[in-house]
Design brief:
Elements: E1 4-9, H1 17-23, H2 29-33, H3 61-73, E2 76-86, E3 89-91, H4 94-100, E4 109-113, E5 118-119, E6 129-131, H5 139-151, E7 158-159, E8 162-167, H6 176-191, E9 196-200, H7 208-211, E10 215-217, E11 243-248, H8 249-258, E12 265-269, H9 276-279, E13 282-288, H10 292-309, E14 316-319, E15 323-324, E16 329-330, H11 340-349, H12 353-358, H13 363-371, H14 386-412
Parallel strand pairs: 1-2, 1-14, 2-4, 4-8, 8-9, 9-10, 10-12, 11-13, 12-14
Antiparallel strand pairs: 2-3, 5-6, 7-8, 15-16
Length: 413
């Protein structure tokens, strides 16, 4: 099928002076992950790596060599490394520079500029600023100059010879359309290359054409307030001072599968999500009801959309993530699932195009969709009127018929 699974990769597994100052001596991603305890009955915490890689330190390039070998053996085509750049100042760059200088890390890669502010909160929205993104008249050309050594590497991922570059939150840039124009012109004039630019729809739905990007990627999971589970479906916390926002994996992933846009939209899947280690049990986002079986179904549906809508050299499907341990989403083997998630990736990525497109909705899928519109139980939650429930069910049936028609058309073509 020529699918290319690109796993998002976090480099924050080594100590740096800035993190020592902000979070304490020796801080890495493991600092939050290791001590986490379950917040409620059945809560999967802590997430512990298996002996395959263990609690590694990314300042050791041999770890990256092993990660690359492991990923490729399970059908992962490349890594998309987060790149932390603040108007010429970089953070967490040691693993990337080590990789650049060591051909033994033999896996294709691209970069995603994590262009949000560095704050006390992990989403960059908190007012307590640790490191702010600033811009001046030389910022955008300087950015390309700093990326040029990566673009020149033979392992760098390209589309028609153009290096692929992702921007995490394009709408945050100062004059974002001007930034794209400067990047393209500078890369062409100074380095003789065009760029393939992708804006990440991390929080919104930025149209890539609005700023001059080639495509967008639908970053998942999405945190739509209307999709959050109501309080009566929340689990009972062990401690009273605990809080979280809960989402259902089935509903969250279904909405991503159903999404359709008039522009190039790369898809993104995730196996699970729980950032309670980063939030210290207060205000976390937790996705419940995830499983290996549902991840396999999600991966198949997104793979079908990728094959049906993109030519072979653009069949990128992003996976969030390779190693976001403190956000509870990782392909790397863990003590609970072993290499189960990676085995699913290998299975689906190796399917022939016709076989993949032939794998449509079955009875299990129908039950999955039906579970999202089940009639509410009386007595423990607000009761919707029969007409509302009927309308919702009819709407889901219409969507299902549309999807089945779409896949029949894709198979025919």
């Amino acid at each position: 099928s020529k699918l290319k699974y690109l796993a998002l990769y976090l480099p924050q597994f080594h100590a740096i002076p800035e993190n020592d100052e902000w979070w304490g001596k020796g801080f890495t991603e493991w600092t939050n992950t290791k001590p986490m305890k379950p917040l409620f009955e059945g809560h999967y915490q802590p997430h512990e790596p298996s002996e395959e890689l263990g609690y590694y330190d990314l300042s050791d390039v041999d770890v990256m060599v092993r990660q690359a070998e492991l990923a490729k053996s399970y059908g992962i085509s490349g890594f998309c490394y987060y790149y932390y750049w603040f108007n010429g100042r970089t953070l967490l760059e040691t693993p990337l520079r080590n990789m650049l200088g060591d051909a033994r890390v033999a896996i294709p890669f691209c970069l995603c500029w994590a262009n949000h502010n560095w704050t006390r909160r992990w989403d960059g929205l908190d007012q307590e600023m640790l490191l702010e993104q600033t811009y001046d008249e030389t910022t955008y050309s300087r950015f390309i100059d700093d990326l040029a050594p990566y673009f020149a590497d033979p392992r760098y991922i390209r589309v028609e010879g153009k290096p692929v570059l992702l921007v995490y939150q394009a709408e945050l840039l100062l004059n974002p359309k001007e930034a794209v124009s400067t990047w393209r012109n500078h890369a062409r004039d100074q380095y003789g290359t065009d760029l393939y630019l992708i804006c990440v729809q991390q929080s919104g739905a930025t149209n890539p054409g609005e700023f001059g990007y080639d495509a967008a990627v639908d970053f998942t999971p999405k945190w739509r307030p209307e999709d959050a589970l109501p309080h009566w479906e929340h689990p009972k916390y062990f401690k009273d001072d605990t809080s979280a926002v809960f989402f259902d994996y089935r509903k969250n992933t279904l909405k991503s599968v159903l999404r359709s846009e008039p522009y190039k939209l790369f898809r993104c899947v995730y196996p699970m999500w729980d950032n309670s280690p980063r939030r210290k049990g207060t205000g976390a986002f937790i996705v419940v009801n995830s499983s290996l079986a549902l991840f396999r179904r999600f991966l198949i549906e997104m793979s079908k959309l990728t094959v049906a809508n993109f030519d072979a050299d653009e069949r990128f499907l992003f996976i969030n993530a390779w190693n976001e341990w403190a956000e509870g989403t990782h392909l790397e083997p863990c003590r609970r699932h072993g290499d189960g998630l990676l085995r699913i990736c290998r299975e689906v990525s190796s399917m022939a195009k016709d076989d993949l497109l032939r794998t449509g909705f079955d009875q299990t899928d129908l039950e999955w969709i039906g579970s999202l519109v089940a009639t509410p139980r009386a007595g423990d939650q607000p009761v919707e009127t029969a007409s509302t429930v009927t309308r919702i069910k009819k709407g889901v049936k219409r969507v299902l018929r549309g999807l089945q028609k779409r896949y029949r058309t894709a198979r025919a073509s």
